[in-house]
Amino acid sequence: MKAERRDGKKILLVGVLILCFCIKTGIISAKSARGVTDNSVKVGAIFDLTGPLATIIKPIVEAMRNYTRYTNDQGGINGRKIKLIIEDDRYSIPASISAFKKLIYRDKIFALLGPGSTGETRVLLDQMMKLKLPSIPMAADRELIEPYKRYIFLSIDTYFTELGVLYDYMIEISKPKRPRITLALVDAGVKAVAIRETNFWERFLNVDIDVVLIPVNVLDTTSEVLNIKQNKVDFVIVGHSIPTVALFLRDSKKFGLKAKIFTSYSGTSEDVIKLAPNAVSNYYGIHPFSSWYDDSPGMEKLRKITLAYHPGTEKPYRGKNYSLGWVMTKILYEGINRAGKDLDNERLVDSLETFRNYNTQGICGPITYSSVSHEGLKYVKVFKANVETGQLDAITDWRRAPIVEKSEAPSISKVEK
Questions:
Q1: Higher confidence at residue 51 or residue 104?
Q2: Which end of the chain is more exposed for a tag (fewer CB within 10 A), N or C?
Q3: At how many degrees (to 10) do helices 54-73 and 242-254 cross?
Q4: Predicted confidence (pLDDT) per residue in 281-291, tens digit
Protein backbone atom coordinates (compact mmCIF):
# COMPACT_ATOMS: atom_id res chain seq x y z
CA MET A 1 0.00 0.00 0.00
CA LYS A 2 2.85 2.39 0.91
CA ALA A 3 4.53 1.64 -2.41
CA GLU A 4 1.28 2.43 -4.24
CA ARG A 5 0.98 5.78 -2.39
CA ARG A 6 4.58 6.63 -3.27
CA ASP A 7 3.90 5.76 -6.92
CA GLY A 8 0.73 7.84 -6.89
CA LYS A 9 2.56 10.85 -5.45
CA LYS A 10 5.26 10.50 -8.10
CA ILE A 11 2.65 10.41 -10.87
CA LEU A 12 0.89 13.45 -9.40
CA LEU A 13 4.19 15.34 -9.10
CA VAL A 14 5.14 14.52 -12.68
CA GLY A 15 1.69 15.63 -13.84
CA VAL A 16 2.00 18.97 -12.02
CA LEU A 17 5.46 19.55 -13.48
CA ILE A 18 4.20 18.82 -17.01
CA LEU A 19 1.24 21.17 -16.52
CA CYS A 20 3.53 23.96 -15.28
CA PHE A 21 5.82 23.43 -18.25
CA CYS A 22 2.89 23.61 -20.69
CA ILE A 23 1.60 26.82 -19.12
CA LYS A 24 5.04 28.42 -19.13
CA THR A 25 5.77 27.55 -22.75
CA GLY A 26 2.28 28.47 -23.97
CA ILE A 27 1.18 24.95 -24.89
CA ILE A 28 -1.63 25.51 -22.40
CA SER A 29 -2.60 29.05 -21.47
CA ALA A 30 -2.75 29.94 -17.79
CA LYS A 31 -5.99 31.77 -18.53
CA SER A 32 -8.35 31.55 -21.45
CA ALA A 33 -8.48 34.71 -23.57
CA ARG A 34 -11.82 35.52 -25.20
CA GLY A 35 -11.82 34.46 -28.85
CA VAL A 36 -8.59 32.46 -28.62
CA THR A 37 -8.34 28.67 -28.87
CA ASP A 38 -5.44 26.32 -29.48
CA ASN A 39 -5.92 26.62 -33.23
CA SER A 40 -7.79 29.86 -33.92
CA VAL A 41 -8.18 33.56 -33.12
CA LYS A 42 -11.47 35.37 -33.75
CA VAL A 43 -11.17 38.90 -35.10
CA GLY A 44 -14.23 41.08 -35.63
CA ALA A 45 -14.75 43.99 -38.01
CA ILE A 46 -17.50 46.65 -38.22
CA PHE A 47 -17.82 48.67 -41.43
CA ASP A 48 -20.40 50.32 -43.68
CA LEU A 49 -20.93 47.88 -46.55
CA THR A 50 -24.33 49.06 -47.82
CA GLY A 51 -24.71 52.65 -46.58
CA PRO A 52 -23.47 56.04 -47.84
CA LEU A 53 -19.78 55.24 -47.22
CA ALA A 54 -19.85 51.87 -48.98
CA THR A 55 -17.74 53.08 -51.93
CA ILE A 56 -15.01 54.12 -49.50
CA ILE A 57 -15.25 51.05 -47.24
CA LYS A 58 -15.57 48.11 -49.65
CA PRO A 59 -11.91 48.23 -50.79
CA ILE A 60 -10.85 48.22 -47.13
CA VAL A 61 -12.87 45.11 -46.38
CA GLU A 62 -11.66 43.35 -49.55
CA ALA A 63 -8.07 43.97 -48.44
CA MET A 64 -8.81 42.61 -44.96
CA ARG A 65 -10.26 39.43 -46.40
CA ASN A 66 -7.35 38.93 -48.79
CA TYR A 67 -4.67 39.58 -46.19
CA THR A 68 -6.43 37.22 -43.75
CA ARG A 69 -6.63 34.53 -46.43
CA TYR A 70 -2.93 35.00 -47.18
CA THR A 71 -2.03 34.80 -43.48
CA ASN A 72 -3.99 31.58 -43.02
CA ASP A 73 -2.50 30.07 -46.19
CA GLN A 74 0.93 30.69 -44.67
CA GLY A 75 -0.04 28.59 -41.67
CA GLY A 76 -1.72 31.25 -39.57
CA ILE A 77 -0.04 32.99 -36.63
CA ASN A 78 1.86 30.90 -34.11
CA GLY A 79 -0.15 27.85 -35.17
CA ARG A 80 -3.52 29.59 -35.04
CA LYS A 81 -5.74 30.45 -38.03
CA ILE A 82 -7.57 33.77 -38.08
CA LYS A 83 -11.37 33.74 -38.18
CA LEU A 84 -12.42 37.15 -39.54
CA ILE A 85 -16.08 38.05 -38.86
CA ILE A 86 -17.31 41.20 -40.63
CA GLU A 87 -20.50 43.05 -39.73
CA ASP A 88 -22.27 45.79 -41.75
CA ASP A 89 -23.30 48.87 -39.72
CA ARG A 90 -24.70 50.82 -42.74
CA TYR A 91 -23.06 54.00 -41.32
CA SER A 92 -25.67 53.89 -38.56
CA ILE A 93 -24.93 54.19 -34.86
CA PRO A 94 -27.78 51.82 -33.78
CA ALA A 95 -26.61 49.23 -36.33
CA SER A 96 -23.03 49.66 -35.16
CA ILE A 97 -24.04 49.04 -31.54
CA SER A 98 -25.98 45.94 -32.58
CA ALA A 99 -23.03 44.63 -34.60
CA PHE A 100 -20.68 45.24 -31.67
CA LYS A 101 -22.92 43.32 -29.27
CA LYS A 102 -23.11 40.38 -31.68
CA LEU A 103 -19.36 40.24 -32.12
CA ILE A 104 -18.71 40.41 -28.37
CA TYR A 105 -21.44 38.25 -26.88
CA ARG A 106 -22.23 35.76 -29.64
CA ASP A 107 -18.99 35.50 -31.59
CA LYS A 108 -16.74 36.31 -28.62
CA ILE A 109 -14.05 38.06 -30.65
CA PHE A 110 -10.51 38.64 -29.39
CA ALA A 111 -9.83 41.95 -31.19
CA LEU A 112 -11.65 44.44 -33.40
CA LEU A 113 -10.91 46.14 -36.72
CA GLY A 114 -13.09 49.23 -37.09
CA PRO A 115 -15.60 50.77 -36.81
CA GLY A 116 -15.15 52.60 -40.06
CA SER A 117 -16.04 56.10 -38.88
CA THR A 118 -15.41 58.47 -36.00
CA GLY A 119 -19.03 58.72 -34.83
CA GLU A 120 -19.53 54.98 -34.37
CA THR A 121 -16.13 54.61 -32.71
CA ARG A 122 -16.90 57.34 -30.17
CA VAL A 123 -20.17 55.70 -29.23
CA LEU A 124 -18.48 52.32 -28.67
CA LEU A 125 -15.31 53.67 -27.06
CA ASP A 126 -16.36 53.21 -23.42
CA GLN A 127 -17.35 49.60 -24.06
CA MET A 128 -14.09 48.87 -25.87
CA MET A 129 -12.19 50.14 -22.85
CA LYS A 130 -14.44 48.40 -20.30
CA LEU A 131 -14.06 45.07 -22.12
CA LYS A 132 -10.32 45.64 -22.62
CA LEU A 133 -10.85 44.95 -26.31
CA PRO A 134 -7.80 45.70 -28.50
CA SER A 135 -9.26 47.77 -31.33
CA ILE A 136 -7.92 49.42 -34.49
CA PRO A 137 -10.64 51.78 -35.73
CA MET A 138 -10.58 53.57 -39.09
CA ALA A 139 -10.94 56.97 -37.49
CA ALA A 140 -8.74 60.05 -37.58
CA ASP A 141 -9.79 61.70 -34.33
CA ARG A 142 -7.22 62.46 -31.61
CA GLU A 143 -10.00 62.29 -29.04
CA LEU A 144 -10.00 58.50 -29.42
CA ILE A 145 -6.45 58.24 -28.11
CA GLU A 146 -5.92 61.42 -26.05
CA PRO A 147 -5.59 61.12 -23.19
CA TYR A 148 -3.85 57.77 -23.67
CA LYS A 149 -6.25 54.84 -24.01
CA ARG A 150 -4.56 51.48 -23.67
CA TYR A 151 -6.76 49.41 -26.01
CA ILE A 152 -7.30 51.85 -28.92
CA PHE A 153 -4.78 52.15 -31.78
CA LEU A 154 -5.30 54.52 -34.72
CA SER A 155 -4.70 53.14 -38.20
CA ILE A 156 -4.58 56.39 -40.18
CA ASP A 157 -3.26 59.90 -39.69
CA THR A 158 -5.36 62.25 -37.59
CA TYR A 159 -7.41 65.16 -38.92
CA PHE A 160 -4.91 67.36 -37.11
CA THR A 161 -2.01 65.98 -39.19
CA GLU A 162 -3.99 65.89 -42.42
CA LEU A 163 -5.23 69.47 -42.22
CA GLY A 164 -1.84 70.69 -41.04
CA VAL A 165 -0.14 69.18 -44.08
CA LEU A 166 -2.77 70.57 -46.45
CA TYR A 167 -2.67 74.12 -45.13
CA ASP A 168 1.13 74.11 -44.96
CA TYR A 169 1.36 72.86 -48.55
CA MET A 170 -1.08 75.50 -49.80
CA ILE A 171 0.97 78.24 -48.14
CA GLU A 172 4.16 76.80 -49.64
CA ILE A 173 2.90 76.82 -53.24
CA SER A 174 1.23 80.24 -52.85
CA LYS A 175 4.24 82.23 -51.61
CA PRO A 176 4.62 85.14 -51.41
CA LYS A 177 0.84 85.53 -51.63
CA ARG A 178 -1.28 84.75 -48.58
CA PRO A 179 -3.87 82.16 -49.70
CA ARG A 180 -7.61 82.22 -49.08
CA ILE A 181 -8.95 78.76 -48.23
CA THR A 182 -12.43 77.27 -47.84
CA LEU A 183 -13.07 74.04 -45.96
CA ALA A 184 -16.24 72.42 -47.38
CA LEU A 185 -17.28 69.90 -44.73
CA VAL A 186 -19.86 67.17 -44.60
CA ASP A 187 -22.38 68.19 -41.95
CA ALA A 188 -21.94 65.02 -39.90
CA GLY A 189 -20.00 63.54 -36.97
CA VAL A 190 -16.56 64.82 -37.99
CA LYS A 191 -17.69 68.45 -38.33
CA ALA A 192 -16.79 69.55 -34.80
CA VAL A 193 -13.39 67.86 -34.90
CA ALA A 194 -12.42 69.36 -38.27
CA ILE A 195 -13.55 72.84 -37.21
CA ARG A 196 -11.56 72.58 -33.98
CA GLU A 197 -8.38 71.58 -35.83
CA THR A 198 -8.96 74.18 -38.57
CA ASN A 199 -9.37 76.99 -36.04
CA PHE A 200 -6.01 76.05 -34.57
CA TRP A 201 -4.14 75.90 -37.89
CA GLU A 202 -5.72 79.18 -39.01
CA ARG A 203 -4.13 80.91 -36.03
CA PHE A 204 -0.88 78.92 -36.03
CA LEU A 205 -0.18 79.40 -39.76
CA ASN A 206 -1.77 82.87 -40.05
CA VAL A 207 -4.12 82.06 -42.94
CA ASP A 208 -7.77 82.84 -43.68
CA ILE A 209 -10.02 79.76 -43.71
CA ASP A 210 -13.79 79.81 -44.21
CA VAL A 211 -16.01 76.81 -43.41
CA VAL A 212 -18.97 75.72 -45.58
CA LEU A 213 -21.21 72.81 -44.57
CA ILE A 214 -22.55 70.31 -47.13
CA PRO A 215 -25.41 67.89 -46.27
CA VAL A 216 -24.58 64.17 -46.04
CA ASN A 217 -26.78 63.06 -48.97
CA VAL A 218 -26.45 66.21 -51.08
CA LEU A 219 -27.70 66.01 -54.69
CA ASP A 220 -26.62 69.48 -55.82
CA THR A 221 -23.74 71.72 -54.71
CA THR A 222 -24.59 74.75 -56.86
CA SER A 223 -25.21 77.11 -53.94
CA GLU A 224 -21.98 76.06 -52.18
CA VAL A 225 -19.92 76.48 -55.37
CA LEU A 226 -21.39 79.91 -56.15
CA ASN A 227 -20.84 81.08 -52.57
CA ILE A 228 -17.20 79.97 -52.67
CA LYS A 229 -16.67 81.55 -56.11
CA GLN A 230 -18.02 84.87 -54.89
CA ASN A 231 -15.44 84.89 -52.09
CA LYS A 232 -12.60 84.45 -54.63
CA VAL A 233 -10.80 81.71 -52.72
CA ASP A 234 -7.59 80.04 -53.93
CA PHE A 235 -8.11 76.57 -52.46
CA VAL A 236 -11.07 74.43 -51.42
CA ILE A 237 -10.84 71.31 -49.25
CA VAL A 238 -13.84 69.03 -49.72
CA GLY A 239 -14.18 66.62 -46.80
CA HIS A 240 -16.87 64.30 -48.07
CA SER A 241 -17.62 61.00 -49.85
CA ILE A 242 -16.40 60.09 -53.35
CA PRO A 243 -19.73 60.81 -55.13
CA THR A 244 -20.01 64.22 -53.46
CA VAL A 245 -16.43 65.17 -54.36
CA ALA A 246 -17.17 64.28 -58.01
CA LEU A 247 -20.42 66.27 -57.86
CA PHE A 248 -18.60 69.29 -56.42
CA LEU A 249 -15.96 69.10 -59.18
CA ARG A 250 -18.60 68.96 -61.92
CA ASP A 251 -20.50 71.92 -60.46
CA SER A 252 -17.23 73.83 -60.04
CA LYS A 253 -16.42 73.45 -63.72
CA LYS A 254 -19.99 74.28 -64.73
CA PHE A 255 -19.92 77.59 -62.83
CA GLY A 256 -16.29 78.49 -63.51
CA LEU A 257 -14.77 78.06 -60.04
CA LYS A 258 -11.00 78.35 -60.66
CA ALA A 259 -9.80 77.36 -57.19
CA LYS A 260 -7.66 74.26 -56.73
CA ILE A 261 -9.85 71.63 -55.11
CA PHE A 262 -8.31 69.28 -52.55
CA THR A 263 -9.93 66.35 -50.77
CA SER A 264 -9.24 64.49 -47.56
CA TYR A 265 -8.34 60.80 -47.55
CA SER A 266 -12.01 59.82 -47.91
CA GLY A 267 -12.26 61.53 -51.31
CA THR A 268 -8.78 60.86 -52.67
CA SER A 269 -9.72 58.11 -55.10
CA GLU A 270 -9.39 57.21 -58.76
CA ASP A 271 -13.16 56.70 -58.69
CA VAL A 272 -13.54 60.49 -58.58
CA ILE A 273 -11.74 60.71 -61.93
CA LYS A 274 -14.14 58.12 -63.38
CA LEU A 275 -17.19 60.01 -62.11
CA ALA A 276 -16.00 63.45 -63.27
CA PRO A 277 -13.46 62.84 -66.07
CA ASN A 278 -13.92 66.28 -67.62
CA ALA A 279 -13.72 68.24 -64.38
CA VAL A 280 -10.58 67.04 -62.58
CA SER A 281 -7.89 69.34 -63.97
CA ASN A 282 -7.78 71.15 -60.60
CA TYR A 283 -8.41 68.05 -58.45
CA TYR A 284 -5.86 67.18 -55.74
CA GLY A 285 -5.98 64.81 -52.81
CA ILE A 286 -4.12 63.86 -49.68
CA HIS A 287 -3.74 60.33 -48.37
CA PRO A 288 -1.54 58.41 -45.90
CA PHE A 289 -1.41 55.33 -48.15
CA SER A 290 0.13 54.57 -51.53
CA SER A 291 -1.73 53.89 -54.77
CA TRP A 292 -2.32 50.41 -56.19
CA TYR A 293 0.10 51.10 -59.06
CA ASP A 294 2.88 52.75 -57.03
CA ASP A 295 6.39 51.33 -57.40
CA SER A 296 7.62 50.09 -54.02
CA PRO A 297 8.45 46.65 -52.55
CA GLY A 298 5.43 46.77 -50.25
CA MET A 299 2.97 47.65 -53.01
CA GLU A 300 4.51 45.06 -55.33
CA LYS A 301 3.94 42.33 -52.75
CA LEU A 302 0.42 43.59 -52.06
CA ARG A 303 -0.43 43.39 -55.77
CA LYS A 304 1.17 39.95 -56.18
CA ILE A 305 -0.80 38.41 -53.31
CA THR A 306 -4.07 40.07 -54.33
CA LEU A 307 -3.82 39.02 -57.98
CA ALA A 308 -2.92 35.47 -57.00
CA TYR A 309 -6.35 35.24 -55.35
CA HIS A 310 -8.12 37.35 -58.00
CA PRO A 311 -6.33 36.86 -61.31
CA GLY A 312 -7.23 39.25 -64.11
CA THR A 313 -8.26 42.09 -61.78
CA GLU A 314 -5.24 44.36 -62.25
CA LYS A 315 -7.71 46.98 -63.53
CA PRO A 316 -9.76 48.88 -62.63
CA TYR A 317 -7.30 50.08 -60.00
CA ARG A 318 -8.06 49.37 -56.39
CA GLY A 319 -8.16 52.63 -54.44
CA LYS A 320 -5.79 53.78 -51.72
CA ASN A 321 -8.25 52.59 -49.12
CA TYR A 322 -7.38 49.06 -50.24
CA SER A 323 -3.84 49.82 -49.03
CA LEU A 324 -5.36 51.16 -45.79
CA GLY A 325 -7.31 47.93 -45.18
CA TRP A 326 -4.17 45.91 -45.91
CA VAL A 327 -2.09 47.82 -43.36
CA MET A 328 -4.81 47.83 -40.67
CA THR A 329 -4.93 44.05 -40.86
CA LYS A 330 -1.16 43.72 -41.13
CA ILE A 331 -0.67 45.79 -37.97
CA LEU A 332 -3.07 43.67 -35.94
CA TYR A 333 -1.67 40.35 -37.16
CA GLU A 334 1.92 41.47 -36.61
CA GLY A 335 0.93 42.43 -33.07
CA ILE A 336 -0.63 39.00 -32.52
CA ASN A 337 2.55 37.40 -33.87
CA ARG A 338 4.79 39.42 -31.57
CA ALA A 339 2.59 38.55 -28.59
CA GLY A 340 3.61 34.91 -28.96
CA LYS A 341 1.85 31.63 -28.35
CA ASP A 342 0.49 32.53 -24.92
CA LEU A 343 -1.91 35.11 -26.34
CA ASP A 344 -4.22 37.42 -24.44
CA ASN A 345 -5.37 41.02 -24.80
CA GLU A 346 -2.72 42.49 -22.50
CA ARG A 347 0.11 40.76 -24.35
CA LEU A 348 -1.31 41.97 -27.65
CA VAL A 349 -1.37 45.58 -26.45
CA ASP A 350 2.17 45.25 -25.09
CA SER A 351 3.37 43.86 -28.42
CA LEU A 352 1.71 46.62 -30.46
CA GLU A 353 3.43 49.15 -28.24
CA THR A 354 6.80 47.81 -29.43
CA PHE A 355 6.20 49.22 -32.95
CA ARG A 356 8.98 51.75 -33.65
CA ASN A 357 9.03 53.21 -37.16
CA TYR A 358 7.39 50.01 -38.41
CA ASN A 359 8.28 49.75 -42.08
CA THR A 360 5.61 48.66 -44.59
CA GLN A 361 8.08 48.95 -47.48
CA GLY A 362 6.35 51.90 -49.10
CA ILE A 363 2.65 51.17 -48.51
CA CYS A 364 2.62 54.05 -46.01
CA GLY A 365 5.00 56.05 -43.86
CA PRO A 366 6.60 54.63 -40.69
CA ILE A 367 4.26 53.60 -37.86
CA THR A 368 5.11 54.07 -34.19
CA TYR A 369 3.13 53.11 -31.10
CA SER A 370 4.31 53.38 -27.51
CA SER A 371 3.07 53.13 -23.95
CA VAL A 372 2.19 56.84 -24.04
CA SER A 373 0.84 57.30 -27.59
CA HIS A 374 -1.21 55.18 -30.01
CA GLU A 375 -1.32 57.75 -32.81
CA GLY A 376 0.77 55.55 -35.09
CA LEU A 377 0.91 57.22 -38.50
CA LYS A 378 1.94 60.86 -39.02
CA TYR A 379 2.81 61.01 -42.72
CA VAL A 380 0.79 61.71 -45.88
CA LYS A 381 1.39 62.43 -49.57
CA VAL A 382 -0.27 64.99 -51.83
CA PHE A 383 -1.66 63.63 -55.12
CA LYS A 384 -2.87 65.23 -58.35
CA ALA A 385 -5.31 63.80 -60.89
CA ASN A 386 -3.83 62.58 -64.18
CA VAL A 387 -6.66 62.69 -66.70
CA GLU A 388 -4.76 60.73 -69.36
CA THR A 389 -3.95 57.73 -67.16
CA GLY A 390 -6.89 57.93 -64.74
CA GLN A 391 -4.38 57.82 -61.90
CA LEU A 392 -3.57 60.02 -58.93
CA ASP A 393 0.11 60.89 -59.19
CA ALA A 394 2.08 61.69 -56.04
CA ILE A 395 3.46 65.22 -56.28
CA THR A 396 5.18 65.16 -52.88
CA ASP A 397 7.05 62.63 -50.77
CA TRP A 398 5.73 61.65 -47.32
CA ARG A 399 5.06 64.89 -45.43
CA ARG A 400 4.40 65.70 -41.78
CA ALA A 401 2.41 68.61 -40.43
CA PRO A 402 4.38 71.51 -38.97
CA ILE A 403 5.78 70.60 -35.56
CA VAL A 404 3.56 71.81 -32.75
CA GLU A 405 4.45 71.64 -29.08
CA LYS A 406 1.98 69.52 -27.15
CA SER A 407 1.12 72.49 -24.96
CA GLU A 408 0.17 74.49 -28.08
CA ALA A 409 -2.05 71.85 -29.71
CA PRO A 410 -5.82 72.40 -29.54
CA SER A 411 -7.38 70.79 -26.50
CA ILE A 412 -9.68 67.88 -27.29
CA SER A 413 -11.95 69.11 -24.51
CA LYS A 414 -12.89 72.09 -26.67
CA VAL A 415 -14.88 70.21 -29.29
CA GLU A 416 -17.87 72.18 -30.50
CA LYS A 417 -21.06 70.14 -30.13
A1: 104
A2: C
A3: 140
A4: 999 999 999 99
Dist CA 51 CA 66 (whole Å): 22
Residue 42 contacts residue 107 (beta carbons within 8 Å): yes
Tell me: pLDDT of 233 over 50: yes
- Give the whole-angstrom CA distance, residue 346 versus residue 348: 5
- The span from the CA of 300 to the CA of 317, in Å, is 14
Cα 218 from Cα 74, distance rounded (Å): 45
Q: What is the DSSP letter of 364?
A: B
Task: Report which of 292, 284, 230, 286 is spatially closest to residue 257, judged by C-alpha positions.
Answer: 230
Mean of the per-residue pLDDT values of the chain: 89
Mean pLDDT, rounded, for 126-134: 97
Q: pLDDT band at residue 187, thresholds of 50, 70 and 90? A: low
23-29 contacts: CB < 8 A, separation 24 or more? 25/341, 26/340, 26/341, 26/342, 27/341, 29/342, 29/343, 29/344
Sign of CA dihedral 20, 21, 25, 26: negative
Name the H helices within 90-158: 93-101, 118-130
Helix (H) / strand (E) element for 19: namely: helix 2-25
Tell me the β-bridge partners of 184: 212, 238
CA 191 – CA 185 distance, rounded (Å): 7
How do 135-136 and 180-186 pair as beta strands? unpaired
